[in-house]
Each structure stands twice: as C-alpha cells, then as structure tokens.
Amino acid sequence: MKKTLYELAATCQKTPRPPVWMMRQAGRYLPEYRQIREKYSFIEMIKTPKIAAEITLQPIHRFGMDAAILFSDILVTAEALGCHVDIIEKKGPIITPPIRTRADVDTLNTVNTTKKLTYVLEAIDLLTPQVTALNIPLIGFAGAPFTVASYMIEGQSSPDLKLTKQLMTQDPSTLHALLEKLTNVTIDYLNAQLKAGVKALQIFDTWAGHLSYTDFETYSSTYIQKIIQNLNNPNNCPITVFAKNTTTFAPLLTTTGANVISVDWQTNLKTLKNIVPQNMAIQGNLDPYLLFAPDDILTQRVDAILNTMQDRPGYIFNLGHGLMPDINPEKVALVVNRVQAFHH
Ligand code: CP3
C-alpha cells in the first residue's frame, strides 16, 4: 500500500512538504470533544471504543492533520498492572494506591495485562478503515516506563518528582523492579497495537526531563531501548520517542532504536539536525504557548521552523508538548494550513 506523507517523513524519505499533527490534538479545546465529555468521564471515554474512535477523528475532520493519534492515555498500563487510575478535572491523574515499596511492586500483576486493554485494540479496529480511507496513519502509543512509574510512585502529578528521586537513591532495586514490570507490559501492549493495525508508535517520556544525564540512561533510555528491541514489527512501522529536555538527552535518545526523535521547544533545531543521525527523523518543536500569540507572530514562528528544517529529509511538524485546553481552535487551523501550504 502507498506510504502516507507521515510514514515517508518518519523514515527520512523526501516529501513535498512536512506532515503536520499535534500532540493532544484531541481534547477539551474542541467544542465537539466537550460535548461528549459532558456526558462521560475521561476514563469512560477512553474505555468505550466507539467514543475513543470518534474523538480520535474529531481533529482530523476539523483540521485535516496528516496523522491521527489514538485517543487514550499513557496511564492505562498502570491500570493494567492493577492500580486504580482516576483523572480529576484541574488536578490531573490520581493513582491509588501509590507504589512506593518493594511489597507494593510485588502486588502488581503482569499476567494477561493486554487482555485488560482490549478496549484499545477494539478502537484501533474501528479506526483502521477510516484512517485508511483518509490516507493517514493511526499512531498508537504508550508511556515510557520511567514517566508511568513516576505517576505510580507520586500518586499524582508532581512538580519535581521528589518521591521518585528519593526511591531512586534510597532503594534503586525497587525502582528497577517497577520499571522492569512496566517495560514488560508495554512491550506486550505495543505489540498488540501493532498487530491490531496501527501504522506508527510513539513512546511518551514526558517527565524524564527531571533527570540527570546518567539517571536518564540508567532509569529511562535503557528501558525504552529494551521495549523497541522487543517489538514484533514486520512492516517497520516508525517508532517515535518523545521526551522533555531533549537538548541534553539527544545522544541517548538516538541509541534507543527509535526512528524519530520528538523534541521540546527549547531545543535548537539548527544544532539538533547535525547531532541526530541522517537516518533518524525529527519531530517538533513549536512552543504550544505560541498558539496564544497574534496570528502574525504565530505565522512567523511556524515559518522559522519550516525554513530551518527544509533542507533535511525526515521532518514532522509538531508542537514541543501537547495542546492546552484553552487554545483557540482557529490557531490550530492556522498552523496546520500554514504547514500544508509550504513547499520545499
Ligand atoms: O494526543 C492526543 O490527542 C491523544 C490522546 C492523549 C491523551 N493523553 C489524552 C488526554 C495522549 C497521547 C496522552 C498522553 C499523556 N497522558 C501524557 C504524555 C504526553 C504529555 O502530554 O506529556 C501524559 C503525561 C499523560 C497523563 C495525563 N493524562 C495528564 C497529566 C492528564 C491531565 C491533563 C489535563 O489537562 O487535565 C491526563 C488526562 C488527559 N489525557 C486528557 C486528555 C484529552 C484530559 C481529559 C479530560 O479531562 O477531558
């Protein structure tokens, strides 16, 4: 089958223009999302395949992005291991009970975890014919073990990952045991997504940016590498790894075996494109807060990125992190249209 623009760019082949999509492109900034959200909790929405599929396509129908990302959450792997996950408006995720000791880690059940995530595979089934007709890929995803572990340890969003870092120095073998369990669940889960038909995968390591370089290697990139090595990926679906603090971590991220590195807005793309091997694609890195800027400023900043990356095959336009709930949808349209009107 013909490769989509996204798949060509992700494998560093020449494209007439970069593909564009946005992290958190489905969500509360869209009135059509809020309409469904009024009737269901977030967890109910991701667990109902028909609703998850509908929400996945909402931004595609409205803006025509070049890729759809499955509507779900990174914390489903924590739930599959036996934690209770709640998402509270304005507070974020709450994980009960938190996992802080070796005994806590030992209670996590790694048997048949993918069975508990069947609802995701059913959403992929519903979406496959629709994205195929639109000639865009469906991107599957999972959280990186370190980021999911940090939620399980903290029990909620944390500004500094203090408890996680305490466990790291006071009882590193417990942290490794937790990361090992998460790695195994994530391998099974991503393999199930590939088998169900996603065309690409992204691994989110949002909170790795809190780590030092050595700790990132010991507690994060090594586990991401193990996941990628254990994927059963006969069609070579491209794998993207997203982390914050990519400027610092780029050399380690390039050794994970990922095909695409997704970078935060602090990263200097001019420097990065010389560090990242030519056979690895780059995704990013517009500061999502620029979507609050006046149109002329936003346009200038989008163009600056496009111009910087235009001589490099293997570039996917995206944000440096996810869209916020109070973004004006018209700004999203402006960015998508600007990228799609660009020609090398
Ligand atoms: O990108 C997409 O459109 C796909 C769906 C997606 C969501 N979460 C939907 C969501 C993806 C890929 C994620 C990943 C995710 N989830 C990450 C990694 C990426 C990132 O943004 O850093 C993280 C750290 C989480 C954990 C998480 N889930 C948080 C911190 C929150 C609360 C955030 C908030 O704004 O309230 C969630 C809930 C969540 N995940 C929402 C959505 C649309 C909001 C749910 C709602 O109340 O309607």
Q: Count every helix, treating DSSP H or I runs of 4 or more residues as helices.
A: 15
Number of domains: 1
| Overall pLDDT confidence | 97
The H-and-E topology, N to C, reads as: HHHHEHEEHHEHHHEHEHEHEHEH
Count of beta strands? 9
Main β sheet profile? 7 strands, parallel
Task: Give the termini distance in whole angstroms.
Answer: 25 Å
From the 3D coordinates, which CATH architecture would you assign?
Alpha-Beta Barrel
CATH class reads Alpha Beta
CATH topology-level fold name: TIM Barrel
**Which ligands are bound?**
coproporphyrinogen III
Helix amount, in percent?
A: 40-55%
Low-confidence stretches: none
Principal-axes geometry comes out as: globular
What is the radius of gyration computed over CA atoms, rounded to a whole number of angstroms?
19 Å
